[in-house]
Amino acid sequence: MSTGVRKNTGFASITKDLPAGLVVFLVALPLCLGISLASGAPLFAGLITGIVGGLVVSWLSGSQLSVSGPAAGLTVIVLNGIETLQTYEAFLLAVVLAGALQLVLGFLKAGVIGLYFPSSVIRGMLAAIGLILILKQIPHFLGADDDFFGSLYFLQADGNNTFSGITKALSGINTGAFIVGLVSLAILLLWDTKPFKKVKLFKFVPGALVVVLASVGINAIFLAYYPELAITSSHLVNLPIISSAQDLGNELRLPDFSSFTNPAVYVVAFTIAIVASLETLLSVEAVDKLDPHKRRTPTNRELKAQGVGNMLSGILGGLPMTAVIVRSSANIVAGGETKLSSFIHGVFLLLSVLFMAGFLNQVPLSALAAVLLVVGFKLTKPTLFKSQFKLGSEQFIPFLVTILAILFTDLLVGICIGLAVGIFYILKANYKSPYFYHKEEQKDKDIIRIKLSEHVSFLNKASIVLTLEHLPDNHHVIIDGENSAYIDYDVLEAIQEFKQTAHERNITVEILDVPEVQALNVH
């Protein structure tokens, strides 16, 4: 199956990728800083990781829409790793080794594991991320929480949890920050209405940029005329100021290569490689489902790209990275078309470090919270829950369990719980050979007939997807479900996606007795 489209590629998509890249930058900036703080690493480390993810991994990756950078799911591993190895420099060596291991996994073609996660679990992950963004940003939107970069986990280090944090925030609203948040949210909602979309200027200028400029302007008015409403520094972006090469050198840290003989380094490296690879594969699978063009990411290439990215990040003093679903989702929602948008976000991160720190340190965090609230809502729209419910209990229950498990634990634990529930439903069904493959040679065009078996479960998805991807070009393909009593939704979705893109390889597809399904769309 093709991994790209024949339109809006390269620099021809700049009118969509530039605004999307700016939105992703505004989302990524506080997350890069926050994950550094939550991980016990130098503040600059998260920015290095985001810059490497944007400038380097975006081009090495085969994904058009995923965005790589420091991941909240790795914070505990980083925190424990630094503590175990006693120095940050020794931990950086573990990051470099983890990247090398990911590179090996890519060459060993370990990326296929991403195909073994049900779509109900992937969609549950997306919905949970959306809900977490909304719930976690409410205190910052209200200006009631100084710790903008708090943990994404349900239970927090300060003894609060997600819901008690919101309750506490309601009793300590910062009026100035709340006003900025409301104005920012209103701008973003208006920017997404039809009258605004009809104006060409508004199409090119992203609402998030207007929000940033407006929020700085509003706070400037507060400072000049209403000092009691002025937003204090604890509620503003806080970037390190780089005014010289010496300042930049002071922020950079290098790996301690003398720690090669420490066995604990290899344990930490192995842990980072496995968890980061799993989170990456889950993220790109989710991104592929959100992609309006239904492009598929080459997973083995993705592991190699992440491996190179982690090696470079570790050498420069950065944190371990993954493909990150929050930033990737923001990219898609903002209208990103190609990997250029991820690269642009990396450019903005680099410029922010070198030249824009003074201005960005004036941006109220409540304005950035408004951006994340909108992104979160678009990931967890009520229509998503309704459509999953209509698919039946086999799809809805794993979907719902995944959401609840992620909300009350963390991303990876929640996914594992949702996967276990999904597997339970799968094992209730009979597992048989999924299809019969037959090739017929004719004068005008060769015909390939794929006759599906009586029962096609999710366990058959990987083999069917791989078969469709490796079909020869310039053929007529018949997918026949006449004898099938049951075809799993994930398999139906894979067949539908193949049908939508087969023309790019001059393959004509004929579907017999296979029901059509509606592909996931967040727009």
TrEMBL record:
InterPro entries: SLC26A/SulP_dom, SLC26A/SulP_fam, STAS_dom_sf
GO biological process, one term: transmembrane transport
Claim: Membrane is one of the keywords in the record: yes
Domain SLC26A/SulP transporter: 15-390
The keyword Transmembrane appears for this protein: yes
Gene Ontology CC annotation, any one: membrane
Transmembrane stretches, start-end: 20-38, 43-61, 90-108, 115-135, 169-192, 204-226, 264-287, 308-326, 346-375, 396-427
Localization, UniProt: Membrane
Membrane topology, from the record: Multi-pass membrane protein
One Pfam family hit: Sulfate_transp
Keywords: Membrane, Transmembrane, Transmembrane helix
SUPFAM superfamilies registered for this protein in UniProt: SpoIIaa-like
PANTHER family: SULFATE TRANSPORTER
Name of the protein: SulP family inorganic anion transporter
Organism annotation: Pontibacter burrus
Lineage: Bacteria, Pseudomonadati, Bacteroidota, Cytophagia, Cytophagales
